[in-house]
Structures are given as C-alpha cells and as structure tokens.
C-alpha cells in the first residue's frame, strides 16, 4: 500500500482549530465522540489515533455529529468521523487508499491514452465509508467512481489525439465505466505545476447522471477559448 503523505494545510488547520474550539460541545457529546475514535482504533489496529475535537461548522459552531481525529500513520491528514442517524462513517479508507486508487485509475486510463506519462489526481465526491477495515480491491469495487478525476497527459513530441479522437476516447470511457463521470484531460508537452494554465489544451467530460453525457468540451489559452465537441448525448 502506498502512503498518502500529501500535506493538506486546510485539514490540519481545521484539526488545530478544533483543539481550541472543542469546548463548544457538551461534555456528554465529547465523550460520545471519543467513543467513535475508540471504535476507529479497534477497527484499524495497525494505526494509532488521537481524538482532536468536534468539526467546526460556520453556521452552528462545533458540530456534535462530526469528530476529527489525528492518525499516526498519516500525520498530514485530518481523519473525519461522522454520525448520521446513529450510523458512523469515516474518510479513513479514502485517505489510506488514495494513492493506490490514483495508480489504479492511471493504469486504467493508459489503455486509452498514449503518451510519455499519465498522471492522475483523484478527488472523491463522497469520501465517507462505514468504519470497516476493507481491502483495496473491495474499496475500489464499492466506492471508487470517476466523479472527479483530473488527468495530465504528457506527450513530449506534442502529438496529441485530435479533438474528434479525444471525444471518442472520453465517450468510450464513459460507456465502459457505466456511471456518471467527470473527467478533465490536460494535454502537456512537459511537466507543469498548473495544468489548467500551462497545458496546450484540455478536454472536459461532464456527466450529471449515468448514461447521459451533458458535454465534452475543449479549452485552450488557459480556458479563455472553449468550444463544445459533444452536447446532450445519450450513451
């Protein structure tokens, strides 16, 4: 398993803020949240967890239904535990399998895109799963969908698929995945720090529901120039 070590400054700030603001919930609620953290520890014995406090909601202050926890294995991440009508869920599986999922998606997309490299950034629309120690295979099968996927396709020779070819590839991916997909492919001739601004062009597949492509667009000049390749297509 690859470790998800990317620093998420916002998540760490939220964790630290909760240390100082956790007094806004009652002692009874804090005790209950600590019980959730203990349940997380019992399920994932290979890691060590520390209860931080309740998540902060700008509208209601400290949220008694959302707890934040630190992980020894993933110190740069802020683990969330949520209580929904008595059912607990967490983003811990998302955190620990994140890099593995990106690798899986990258290998999948290499069958569609020829180039020097294919880099994937995956951001799940719903990061929460039950507090359950599941395998990577089961996590991918049950919880991974291409709802928010960014792809950087590097072709050093600049020989990218044509607009029509790229549209066909994205349609084929949508058909094969058989789910609502939202994918952006950035075409670059070298490694870049901001693909949206530095790519030669980029293509975006937008699907709000399964079996219906809302649009496939191509953009250039950092998004200043944009046109439709596909609009409202049933697949």
List the helices and strands and how they pair.
Blueprint lengths: L8 H13 L5 H17 L5 E9 L3 E11 L6 E7 L2 E4 L1 H18 L7 E6 L6 E2 L5 H8 L5 E6 L8 H15 L4 E7 L6 H4 L2 E6 L5 E9 L4 E10 L1
Parallel strand pairs: 7-8
Antiparallel strand pairs: 1-2, 2-3, 3-4, 4-6, 5-7, 8-9, 9-10, 10-11
What can you tell me about this protein's structure?
By secondary structure, the protein is α+β, with helices and mostly antiparallel strands. The chain has two domains: 9-89, no CATH class; 94-234, no CATH class. The chain contains six helices and eleven strands. The strands form two sheets. Strands 5-7-8-9-10-11 form a six-stranded mixed sheet. It has a five-stranded antiparallel sheet with strand order 1-2-3-4-6. The radius of gyration is 20 Å and the shape is elongated. 29% of the residues are buried. The mean pLDDT is 92.
Task: Output the keywords.
six-stranded mixed beta sheet, alpha+beta, five-stranded antiparallel beta sheet, 235 residues, 6 helices, elongated, single chain
What does the radius of gyration come to? 20 Å
Round the mean pLDDT to the nearest integer and report it.
92
State the helical fraction.
25-40%
Number of beta-strand segments: 11
Tell me the structural class.
alpha+beta
Number of domains: 2
Summary of the model, kept short:
32% of the residues lie in helices and 33% in strands. The chain is an alpha+beta fold and 235 residues long. The strands form two sheets. The chain has a six-stranded mixed sheet with strand order 5-7-8-9-10-11.
């Amino acid at each position: 398993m690859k470790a998800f070590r990317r620093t998420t400054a916002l998540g760490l700030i939220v964790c630290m803020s909760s240390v100082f603001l956790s007094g806004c919930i009652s002692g009874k609620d804090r005790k209950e949240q600590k019980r959730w953290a203990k349940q997380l520890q019992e399920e994932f014995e290979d890691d060590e967890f520390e209860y931080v406090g309740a998540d902060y909601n700008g509208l209601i202050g400290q949220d008694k239904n959302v707890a934040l926890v630190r992980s020894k294995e993933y110190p740069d991440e802020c683990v969330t535990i949520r209580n929904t009508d008595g059912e607990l869920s967490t983003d811990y599986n998302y955190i620990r399998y994140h890099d593995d999922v990106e690798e899986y998606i990258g290998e999948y997309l290499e069958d569609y895109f020829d180039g020097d490299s294919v880099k994937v950034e995956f951001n799940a629309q719903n990061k929460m799963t039950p507090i359950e120690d599941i395998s990577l295979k089961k996590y991918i099968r049950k919880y991974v969908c291409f709802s928010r996927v960014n792809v950087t396709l590097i072709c050093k020779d600049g020989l990218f698929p044509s607009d029509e070819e790229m549209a066909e590839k994205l349609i084929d991916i949508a058909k094969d995945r058989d789910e609502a997909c939202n994918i952006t492919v950035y075409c670059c001739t070298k490694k870049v720090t901001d693909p949206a601004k530095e790519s030669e062009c980029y293509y975006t597949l937008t699907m709000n529901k399964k079996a219906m492509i809302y649009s496939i667009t191509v953009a250039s000049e950092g998004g200043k120039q944009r046109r439709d390749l596909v609009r409202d297509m049933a697949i």
